[in-house]
Amino acid sequence: MISIEGLKVEFGVTPLFDDVSFVINKKDRIALVGKNGAGKSTLLKILAGLQRPTEGVVAVQRGVSIGYLPQVMVLSDTRTVMEEAEMAFDHIAEMQARIEQLNQELADRTDYESESYHELIERFTHENERFLMMGGTNYQAEIERTLTGLGFSREDFGRPTSEFSGGWRMRIELAKILLRRPDVLLLDEPTNHLDIESIQWLEGFLKMCSGAVVLVSHDRAFINNVTNRTIEISCGRIYDYKVPYDEFVVLRKERREQQLRAYENQQKEIKDTEDFIERFRYKATKAVQVQSRIKQLEKIERIEVDEEDNSSLHLKFPPAMRSGNYPVICEGVKKAYGDHVVFHDVDMTIHRGEKVAFVGKNGEGKSTLVKCIMDEIPYEGKLIIGHNVQMGYFAQNQAQLLDENLTVFDTIDRVAKGDIRLKIRDILGAFMFGGEASDKKVKVLSGGERSRLAMIRLLLEPVNFLILDEPTNHLDMRSKDVLKEAIRDFDGTVIVVSHDREFLDGLVTKVYEFGGGRVKEHIGGIYDFLQKKKLESLDQLQLSQSPTAVSAKGKKEEVAASENKLSYEALKEQNKRIRRLEKQVADCEERVGRLEEQVKELEARMATPEGASDMKLYEQHQQLKRQMAAVEEEWEAALTELEEMA
Question: If we measure between CA atoms, which residue out of 497, 503, 422 comes closest to residue 467?
């Protein structure tokens, strides 16, 4: 569909990439990866025809249409959501106008036997068939399905786009591109402004899409679920892997090890040759050999090694004062703007050391509750912040609070304490501020770079309660790994507002779901929550399908069969969940038994004269008690859920 030959792009004298060649075939699902600044967005612009390469050819097959979603775009605010989405079908409106014109001409003419009249009939028939094939009669339903899938409610369809945030307007643009059904979709960070449900909907859409997809994304779960091919831009070249991202990571590691071995061998060869030249440069008897070695050295094609993978760098939050047992307690909290109630009757207790996620559709109040906890906005109800809580807050606009006149290095140097100051360069490198980038002034950084810098600052501040509002939007996968490991090892309390499933997986143990003005607690990780949501939706479907709702007699049997099948699927899912809960209850009981034995042993040792004065034993005793309380709480939640499902 698209052939790229000998592509070269230069900014100034430095080539961004050189001699790049590959082919995009129908049904390809390509993840375009590489470090920030490698040229991913530039390559998408060239494929979209918006930027010309310095050299090379991009050949697009005749009749192939391309849809391109950039990271940032200028949007019009003169239409409603529905009117803006309908622009995707401008070509159908034009076709409909032509058909009406042809129809009118057929009605006006009376030369029924003439050749031109028959030609007119054929033209009308052809245009009408094309119109029907392109969905001319039902595109309105398709628009509604797509907008709903991307998170819009029917009440939003008539609202002007000017009432929506930039993120929601980006969704409208995405909807328009998807509705046009181009042969090749080019998507630059499409998930940045989507919630989890919308991302899952987009995954399903792209899997069913009949054309090719090329996307840039830092959402690992998303690209693993959608793509079947990975193209990496590195050191000005591309490496094409016919595998999904997770398999690419393994193959890339093997390739890098081979590169390193080849590089080390070549460096040894170069050094030996240079030593020979230096040793015999001024000996007449060796002049021929020296000249031969010099020519040999000039002909060597130098091997470049990919940049060092800094995702293995370990960051730790500095130690902070221990907080009280309950950093946040909400009782009947409500927030409303006039008649619009964002949420009400929020009852929530977050225990010290817990890592929880706030999830839900955009606009359901996740960031609003965070602002209530931060005491930035007024609210109704009771909200208590625990004893000795030291908050670290990363907001989506956090980057705007940085001192623009400082350099990147100085920004971090001012908050770094102790031994960590010796590793500032390494830390900056891990977050893509290596080399000269660390000497840039903050005022010349892009929005994404500022967000990353603000995140590094937060990582180095001594806090015991972290609140992170969409922390991964501008981080690449390696930086996200560094951040995730640091949060996982953090011994304080964490609230993460995020739609990134891969980031939340293995990090949080409790999920708070925001929706319909309520906040619902779910015990377990993010994938436990998602699985539970699918089960709930099956139940809702089962309730909504009723034989009495079908008036046509011939349809009753079909509906009943459909319900039985759905009931079976729901029952199968429910049985799986019951077995998992039973195992969880049994595991908890076993863990409590082991912990009780350990507590008894410790108490026996503490009862001796030697143990009575050993403070370490008391600390171990307290730690075991805390572990036992957490396991008992998990046991109680699992048992309660099990009883409800019985």
Answer: 497
Burial class (CB in 10 A: 0-12, 13-18, 19+), 158: exposed
Average pLDDT score over residue span 321-329:
89
Amino acid 551: pLDDT: 42
Cα 615 to chain center, whole Å? 46
In this prediction, residue 448 carries a pLDDT of 65
Q: In 3-state terms, what secondary structure has residue 272? A: helix
Phi, psi of 323 (to 5 degrees): -90, 175
Please give the Cα distance from 489 to 469 (Å, whole number): 19
Tokens of 488: 């996982």
Mean pLDDT over 185-212 rounds to 82
- Sheet with strand 55-60: strands edge to edge: 14-24, 2-11, 55-60
- Asked if 219 and 191 touch (Cβ cutoff 8 Å), the reply is yes
pLDDT value, residue 221: 85
DSSP calls for 117-172: HHHHHHHHHHHHHHHHHTTTTTHHHHHHHHHHHTT--GGGTTSBGGGS-HHHHHHH
| pTM of the predicted structure, to 2 decimals | 0.58
User: What gap in Å lies between CA 169 and CA 178, rounded to an integer?
Assistant: 14
**SS3 of 252, please?**
helix
Least Cα distance to 239 among 247, 226, 230 occurs for: 230
The torsion angle over the Cα atoms of residues 373, 377, 383 and 388, rounded to 10 degrees, is: 50
pLDDT at 399: 61
| Cβ–Cβ under 8 Å, residues 30 and 215 | yes
